[in-house]
Design goal:
4-stranded antiparallel sheet, 8 helices, alpha+beta, hpI Integrase, Chain A, 247 residues
Length: 247
């Protein structure tokens, strides 16, 4: 009708209050497409295949895949690329041998094989309470295990004199540090899905690094773990968790 647009400021831009409100809506809205949880058979195949190779990069991809699955991590927490959340660092790892607690930067390297329990401490990770600790024991699998994956990361970083603020998703090759990227993990997952997926009803395009969080939540649900515990482990503060679980 010729009147000024009430949404716009003096510069013709959407008012900053409306921008913040719309951004808040976008963060709370469910994703348009649900992420498919990866079958555990595919993840075990990833570990078996990757550990036949003898390159630090492939080993790091395998270890971070396992940690993402078992700890229900977001991609920004188990990769070394910039995102809206921060990856876990070496300083945030604690290792237990029986009832004795050790720091990742002081434990003897020969003692890493004796570790039975590992923890990650939340500092500035998304939706995490500062100082909160989540721990896991051994899975019983010779490769696909949170304790073994984390002790392998600690050993690699310690042998390369990595400082305490080094992300766990870092590997050293020829004395240079490299980050594990989401694309690296997606490529490994899709390679195994191409071989194992058809029998399980999965195609490589169905899988990405974002699928690991859903896979971990579904594994807990199938193991009849209480949904309140799943919500606590995954740091979901609402029914957002239901978007990760499938009937």
């Amino acid at each position: 009708m010729g009147a000024d647009d009430p949404r716009l400021d003096n510069f013709g831009q959407i008012d900053f209050r409306l921008r913040r409100q719309l951004a808040g809506y976008a963060r709370t809205d469910p994703p348009p497409a649900r992420v498919k949880p990866i079958p555990v058979q595919i993840l075990r195949h990833v570990m078996a295949v990757v550990y036949t190779a003898d390159t630090p990069g492939e080993h790091a991809v395998a270890d971070m895949t396992a940690l993402a699955f078992f700890f229900l991590l977001r991609p920004g927490e188990y990769t070394g690329t910039p995102s809206d959340t921060r990856p876990f660092h070496l300083a945030e790892v604690q290792l237990w041998i029986g009832q004795c607690r050790h720091q990742a930067h002081t434990i003897g390297l020969v003692d890493l094989d004796r570790v039975t329990f590992v923890t990650l401490t939340f500092t500035t990770q998304k939706n995490g309470v500062r100082g909160e600790v989540i721990g896991l024991g051994r899975s019983g699998n010779p490769t696909f295990c949170p304790v073994l994956a984390l002790t392998r990361r600690v050993r690699h970083l310690r042998l390369n004199n990595a400082p305490l603020h080094t992300p766990l998703a870092t590997y050293y090759e020829r004395n240079h540090a490299h980050p594990v990227r989401p694309a690296d993990i997606t490529a490994a997952l899709r390679a195994s899905t191409a071989l194992q997926g058809p029998a399980l009803g999965f195609l490589p395009k169905d899988i990405s690094a974002h699928s690991l969080r859903a896979a971990g939540a579904m594994a807990l649900l199938c193991a009849q773990v209480d949904t309140d515990i799943i919500r606590l482990l995954g740091r979901w503060r609402s029914d957002e968790m239901l978007h990760y679980l499938h009937v």
